[in-house]
Amino acid sequence: MEPRIRVSSILRWQGRVLLCRQEKPGKEYWLLPGGGVAGGETLMEALRRELREELGIEADVQFEGPVAIVDSIAPKTMVPSRKHVVHIIFSADLSHRSLSDVETHDAAVKGARLFSNDELDEVVVHPPIKRFLERWQPGDPAVYLGALWAR
What we know:
The chain is mostly beta strands. It has helices at about 45-55, 125-135, and strands at about 5-15, 15-25, 25-30, 35, 65-75, 85-95, 110-115, 145. Strands 1, 2, 3, 4, 5, 6, 7 and 8 form an eight-stranded mixed sheet that branches.
């Protein structure tokens, strides 16, 4: 099982965070916008491409980070579809711009919405990412290292 690299961003706007809604059969969940890194692509190139594809956000965004690196390793019981994903998370403040031009372009993304920390309790967000979002503050010097799934 080769690890897959995924980049994403905590996009802040006036104290809230932008999440993308995705659906799988019988399940709805919210993710930080982003996606996989293609061979020969830098992390920033991949992140900018994913934000453009998923949300129509163009390259004028200034990113901080990485602010977190999170390992996602599926339990051994999930064979043969066991996955190992390394998430590299950046951050950006979009408060200086209008979000009226943000629209979902990727077929996998079923919508995007801004959430306050209190509203994160209302939606399904992977627990370690949720805990990280609740305590992380812009400008924090520390990089969070964690795991999404226990082995």
